[in-house]
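Figure 6 in text form: structure in, sequence out.
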């Protein structure tokens, strides 16, 4: 129930020592890409009524692997604009978009079961081309490999160009989001982080666990206390159960005072975000 999740959000928020803080959860069901483009607008509705701007701290619980990377980049930048300090809490495998957003955090609270994925949103033909490019050693080899991949349905030059553009944009956004932290990493540390999160256009099965994330040096990984670890795991589990329940939404954005759900009404071509009205927790 929404009230139970909000109560857990409220208890999770109490561990923050900030005077003014917001705790918000952004959760999505695997494969729920349609309709997520309006996520930034729904997140903004949780931010616009804050008592002041920026607040001392924003804590974000990320759940799932469906957030598009461009949406995630805009969301992370928006959260940084409204909060002096940004903490990301994760207790599961984060997808490309969620992993990209995590790079902007001043503190990354990772549960032992948490991990980050490649930030390359490698879906479709362009995604296949990204993985192909990662294994090519020369331009001619890349062209030949992609030609075999796409066949006669699309120009290999266009596909390679799209893939290279996507990879270049992703690397740029990774570096930019890292500089938004209160204490940005050194240039060489950022470069190593970018390389690690884009290497080989990592597949969904090739993830970085907490130990690997900490060893990078460019991620502000923190080990939560046992109480926080337990609270985060219970909350993430509650969101996973809610998203996978029969008739459950494709995604949710929830804080103590507001809630949005990505649902598809009968007869509608695509799901859309709706604000859910229920008494807030105080």
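Output sequence:
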């Amino acid at each position: 129930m929404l009230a139970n999740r909000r109560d857990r959000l409220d208890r999770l928020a109490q561990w923050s020592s900030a005077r003014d803080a917001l705790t918000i959860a952004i959760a999505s069901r695997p494969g729920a890409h349609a309709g997520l483009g309006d996520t930034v607008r729904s997140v903004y509705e949780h931010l616009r009524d804050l008592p002041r701007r920026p607040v001392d701290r924003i804590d974000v619980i990320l759940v799932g692997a469906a957030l598009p990377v461009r949406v995630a980049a805009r969301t992370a930048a928006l959260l940084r604009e409204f909060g002096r300090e940004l903490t990301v809490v994760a207790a599961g495998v984060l997808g490309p978009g969620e992993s990209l957003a995590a790079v902007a955090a001043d503190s990354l609270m990772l549960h032992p079961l948490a991990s980050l994925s490649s930030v390359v949103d490698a879906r479709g033909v362009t995604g296949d081309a990204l993985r192909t490019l990662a294994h090519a050693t020369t331009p001619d080899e890349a062209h030949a490999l992609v030609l075999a991949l796409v066949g006669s349905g699309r120009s290999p030059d266009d596909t390679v160009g799209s893939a290279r553009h996507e990879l270049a944009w992703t690397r740029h956004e990774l570096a930019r989001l890292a500089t938004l932290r209160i204490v940005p990493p050194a240039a060489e540390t950022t470069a190593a982080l970018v390389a690690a999160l884009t290497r080989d256009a990592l597949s969904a099965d090739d993830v970085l666990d907490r130990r690997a994330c900490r060893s990078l040096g460019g991620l502000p990984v923190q080990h939560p206390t046992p109480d926080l670890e337990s609270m985060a795991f219970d909350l993430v589990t509650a969101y996973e159960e809610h998203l996978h329940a029969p008739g459950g939404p494709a995604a949710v954005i929830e804080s103590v005072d507001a809630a949005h759900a990505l649902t598809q009404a009968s007869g509608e071509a695509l799901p859309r975000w709706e604000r859910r009205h229920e008494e807030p927790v105080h």
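Caption detail: The longest helix spans residues 156-179.
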